[in-house]
Amino acid sequence: MSVRVQTADFDVAREIAALRAGDTGVGAVATFIGTVRDMNDSARIDGMTLEHYPGMTEAALAEIVAEARARFDIRDALVIHRVGVLAPGDQIVLVAVTSAHRGMAFEACRYVMDLLKTRAPFWKKERTPSGERWVEARESDEKAAQRW
What we know:
alpha+beta; 4-stranded mixed beta sheet; 4-stranded antiparallel beta sheet; single chain; 34% helix
C-alpha cells in the first residue's frame, strides 16, 4: 500500500507497473485518474490551487486504503494526490487497485475515491475570470460515500 501527496505530476504507466511488480497473482488493475476541468458550475476555470494539512492528509488517505483492504479482496492499492497550483488538463489524483479479479478491483477503487472526496482534508480554490473562489463540498460526493 502506498499513499503520496505531492506537487509533482505522476506517470500513470510507471506507477501501475510498480504497483504490480513481482505479483503474479494480480489478475486485474482498476484505476481512477482525476484531472482539472476547464469548467465548473457553468464557470470557466483558469486553474486551481489545492491545499492540504500535511501529515493529517496522508493519515486519512492511509486509513481509507486500509479500510478498503479489509473490506475487499484486493492485493494492493495506491493513492497519489497532487497539491499546489494546477491548470486545466493537469492530473490531480490517481487511485489504483490490484486484485485477482476485476470485480473487487473496481469496487475497491470506487470505494477509495468516494471516501477520499469526503474524508481527506484537501481544500480547493478555483481561479476564474471573475476571481478566486473556494470550492464547497458537493452533496453528490456525500451521497456516494454514504452508499458504503
